[in-house]
Amino acid sequence: MGGRNLIVCIDGTANQFGDKNTNVIEIYNLIRKDTKDNQQTWYNSGIGTYARPQWWSSGYLKQVVVHTIDLAIAWNFDATIQAAYRWLADNYRDGDCIFLFGFSRGAFQVRTLSAMVEKVGLIYKGNEMQIPFAYELYVDSASDSEGVEPATSVGSKQKTSKAERFKRAFSRNVKIHFVGAWDTVSSIGFARGKQVLPGTTEGMTHVCYFRHALALDERRVKFLPEYAWGDSTLPRTDPDPSKESHRVHPHTLEVWFPGTHSDIGGGNEYNEEMDRSAPPLRWMVLEATAAGLRTKPFQRELHPSEQIKVQESLEGFWWNLFEILPFQRLTFVTHKGGQRLTWKPHRGAGRQIQPGQKIHSSFILGEPKTNYIPKAIPPGDNATFWEDLREDIENERGWLEVDIRHYARSLVNRVAAQNVSEVGRLRTIVKSRTGAQTVYDEVIHILEKRGQLASNAKCRLLQDAMMLLSEKSHGLRLAKLIHIRLLLVDLLSHDQKDYRDVAEAFIRQLTDHMGYGGVVGSVGLGSFLRARWC
């Protein structure tokens, strides 16, 4: 990827910059924007937002009314998409990578934008007057129908659609690189019909990478999610995992997180400094940076109490009224012959987890005493699913989505802070060379940053590290012996022989002895280290 990154961010319903900033604003803040970073950005506040003047006027009151209606039926839905499309058209150059991020309806808008670019292409700069027509072509399913023969292929029987002919004449063929969505909601208007906008619920396979964070505890009927395939992550066919058609697209990943709609996308809590950095944001940043996005590092680590935050959203008269009204909605029943739509009242039912989706590791990293049980319904309505998942520390069933660095850092921090062993969970990570290196790096990071770490906790940390990594040390980038010796001076000179032995064993097994081999070999490591402190 030798070009630039063009980044579009569209916020959720009624969300804009302020005191309770969302993940969209937070990721926008993290994106590096200096000239040397070769990235350009575009942000739009959510549907139903408006600037508040210092005075009252008829124009202001009209704006309030219009935007209140817009919250309900999303009149300005397409205007935002066309504005973002124009910005991309004006700025795109060959070789650029396009990243799209959105929350709630903003997530559906960026999915729509990606599908529009796929269908009608990215119009050449200077043709902005054609953008409304391009959007009409995109929305109109009839524009996919084959029409006249191409003028350049006289005598050929091949025919092209109106959208294809427009794309060939006015646009560049551009593939969206990355789409990151927090809890996509598509309810534009008052009911979800059988058909939605083209390309938005057909697997998202037209983009290179699709990442979707979902809310385990959202229950409102007006906030039902739109998965990659609308009501599923896999194609809607007779479920048979052995069939090729049932494999998740390799670049599509949908992951569940503890929380309701605005816990996942942000906006529930005060976040003036844009540093809430909750698990759904951290995961999205990790995925996007792996795909080439350039961001600033997070400024703090999360405490176990911050891994799981749930603020109930199904409260108040209107939201509860909606639950007993007959809105047309998806059933999320995906087996062959199942009814896809229903008018039955929703009654605050939990969301339904589908095959192919994942549960983020923050679910098992939270405070163990919370007894948190998500409201989402597991596959097959398995009553022991959540309990089994907590016990599946080696992820043998494959349901967990693990951010290796975040997961390793959280577990290593727990060992250091609480003096408890996490060998079982860490063993899952060190199975791969990358995971083993990550755990080692995090152990060294803790030793460097925690100068006042209690001796017993430090000893436990070293013991766990040796148990996990000693047999893998030949493939690791090890820290220099001289550096680790300085970090372990308290243990090496401790009154208790057990502590001294653990420190010496760690240095012997998991440090780089380059330059000390002859000395260590001739007098023994313990004698060498003790001699150096006299």
* Global morphology: globular
Instruction: Give the N-terminus to C-terminus distance in angstroms.
Output: 55 Å
Helical amount: 25-40%
Uncertain residue segments: 49-54, 63-73, 518-523
DSSP strand (E) fraction? 5-15%
Q: Structural class, please?
A: alpha/beta
Radius of gyration: 27 Å
The strand count comes to: 12
For the largest beta-sheet, the strand count, sense and barrel status come to:
8 strands, parallel
Average of the residue pLDDT scores = 82
Lateral arrangement of strands in the main beta sheet: 2-1-3-6-7-8-11-12
Please give the count of helices: 20
How would you explain this protein's 3D organization?
This protein has helices at 23-30, 58-73, 77-91, 105-120, 131-139, 162-170, 261-265, 279-290, 317-322, 362-365, 385-391, 404-418, 423-429, 433-449, 455-469, 481-487, 489-492, 497-510, 517-523, 525-533, and strands at 5-10, 39-44, 97-103, 122-123, 171-172, 178-182, 209-215, 252-257, 329-330, 341-342, 358-360, 400-401. By secondary structure, the protein is α/β, with parallel strands linked by helices. Helix 1 (23-30) links the parallel strand 1 and strand 2 (39-44). Helix 12 packs across helix 14 and helix 14 (433-449) packs antiparallel against helix 15. It is globular.
